[in-house]
Amino acid sequence: MIYKRNKEIKNFQVSKYYELGAEILAGSEKFNANLTPSQQFKTKSSLITFRKDKGLEKASEVGIIESVKKEQKSEPSPRLFSLSSLQSEMNKRYKVSASQTLAAVQKLYEAKLLSYPRTDCNYITEAEFNYLKENFVAYRTALGSKLKLVNPEPNSRYVNNKKVQEHYAIIPTKKIPTSNEFSKFTDLERNLYAEVLRRTVGMFVRKYYYDETTIVTGVGAVKFITKGKTPLKQGWKLLWGKKKKSADNLPLVQEGQEVKVTFKELEKDTKPPQYFTEGTLITAMKTAGKTLSDKEYQDLLRDVEGIGTEATRANIIEKLKKDGYIEIKKNKIHVTSLGQRLCRAAATSKLLVSPELTAQWEKKLKEISKGQYTEEQFIDQTKHFIDSLVDNLPKVEKESVNESLVTNGRKPPYFSEGI
């Protein structure tokens, strides 16, 4: 997965595209708008043709405010943590590796401050909800917050007895660390404990409320749209110390109002895929089944939560680092030259480098449990699979060496049996 992503980035060709925007003058106030429905033009000439066809050849035209819609919206607090989502969040916020997060949450679990960490669930039962509610003030105080408890009843976004199997989400226990205990935490442990507290307290406090204003401006048959948000109540966002943002300063306009529309031809560049971080890789491993076309295999990998488990994904990444196949640079994961050789060798079997292999094995394991397939058949099939891979390796290595030499500007030698 990492090799493929890095290759896509390396081979990415930047290309330009164009969009049509507008600056709208309403009285003495200006605001920007975008063409709706959104449209990208591969060349500037195709954008010019579009403008000509729509009668927008002039630099500016008179437009009409066709609609002004103001709607109050809300956003609930983030879901409770599973181990994967906690690892992703800690990597995103603090550039911490998956294994470091696992070690820290394990230590807090052993100190009886957090619940069982190796969980793939982000729900709790009503029993946990009740004790968390009883300790709300203590958790809030530990965060230095004065937010009020406004959601005293279980919400299905967080509380669902049916979705809790072996273990529930990572949450604080009834034990609250003293100031002396808290001072002995490492920075990572303090940050991690605070993140879990915030997710937990967020479940009980007010949602984030804001007004969303949508203005549609028409110029002939062409429409431009502008959206702006005005925060009303920050709610749970205050747990992260987020201050109230100013409004997007959209002017007060009325339907039917005439405005001046100045067109803007926007030149943009396509963006390459993003490098994996340990946080995004953990998520990609968990959702690997989404890349498969076979519905049965998609369902199998969804059932087993993708590649690896909550308990093993960090170890898989650490092993790849330890064995020299990948390295981390500025929180981005790169495949080493050794890792590239391994990937080229593995790619001789499309199955070996696809999540489909995990899905096939899961299917065979289910069949074994039902008596429809045997262990011996599975092992024999795996041996045959490995034999065919190993038999093909000399050819792969030859191609790999030749590719390397050609890349370095040298003509590759012929292979002898000795070589």
Write the layout of secondary structure elements.
Elements: H1 2-10, E1 16-26, E2 29-36, H2 44-53, E3 60-75, H3 83-94, H4 98-110, H5 126-134, H6 136-142, H7 179-183, H8 187-202, E4 208-219, E5 222-233, E6 258-269, H9 278-286, H10 295-303, H11 313-322, E7 326-329, E8 332-335, H12 337-346, H13 355-369, H14 375-407
Antiparallel strand pairs: 1-2, 1-6, 2-5, 3-4, 3-6, 4-5, 7-8
Helix pairs in contact: 3-4, 3-9, 4-8, 6-8, 10-13, 12-14
Structure commentary:
The protein has 419 residues and is α+β, with helices and mostly antiparallel strands. Helix content is 40%, strand content 19%. The protein contains 14 helices and eight strands. It has a six-stranded antiparallel barrel. It has a two-stranded antiparallel sheet with strand order 7-8. A hairpin with a 2-residue loop joins β1 and β2. It starts with a helix and ends in a 12-residue tail after the last helix.
Summarize the structure.
The protein is an alpha+beta fold and 419 residues long. The chain has helices at residues 2-10, 44-53, 83-94, 98-110, 126-134, 136-142, 179-183, 187-202, 278-286, 295-303, 313-322, 337-346, 355-369, 375-407; strands at residues 16-26, 29-36, 60-75, 208-219, 222-233, 258-269, 326-329, 332-335. A hairpin with a 2-residue loop joins strand 4 and strand 5.
